[in-house]
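Re-running the complex after MR caught last week's input typo. The corrected sequence lines follow. Everything else is unchanged.
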Amino acid sequence: NAGVTQTPKFQVLKTGQSMTLQCAQDMNHNSMYWYRQDPGMGLRLIYYSASEGTTDKGEVPNGYNVSRLNKREFSLRLESAAPSQTSVYFCASSESGSGGSLGTDTQYFGPGTRLTVL
Amino acid sequence: SQQGEEDPQALSIQEGENATMNCSYKTSINNLQWYRQNSGRGLVHLILIRSNEREKHSGRLRVTLDTSKKSSSLLITASRAADTASYFCASGSGNTGKLIFGQGTTLQVKP
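Corrected-run output:
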């Protein structure tokens, strides 16, 4: 099992360009998450999906869109990249889903995408 | 910000010493988790303690939880150079699996 995979590993964009970060998990998990990590800020949740077909905003959703394509895949799109979106992006998944357990499942993380916006 | 806080922000110790990291959170929780991140890598889950538990052990790790103070601590005993990493606490509530992460403690263990 590969766990959680993310592509690309590195990306450089110019301001105003768009791109999609891809994430896939092979653990049959219900929930998937996108975080950004900035120095001294820990991880901040951008969007999450508690089950296939549902998505919800996290703490910092502005400037991003997401798609839960199927149970395996959860993509993050930057429509018009800005320098403030320079960050390391992590995708994660967990077994729990909406209306299910008390959210006590652990999260499994991908290796991250390092994005620089010039 | 919903984020919790961790202290210290950085900790440097000698191999064999114990390392203690503290975490505070803001809302009622179902569980408190600790994760480890090696430089340039994703986070790896270490241990989970539920809101009705006060202490939990896993190998050289000991976690305590005080829900009245909304705080938790992670103790790593007999530290090794390989323990050098950043450590994050994360609080879980609701039933979506969503977590709120602290800002992390960077631990350096000198051989």
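None of the earlier attempt is carried over here. The interface with chain A takes residues 1-3, 9, 30-31, 33, 40-45, 48, 50, 88, 90, 92-104 of chain B (CB under 8 Å). Chain B has no helices and eleven strands.
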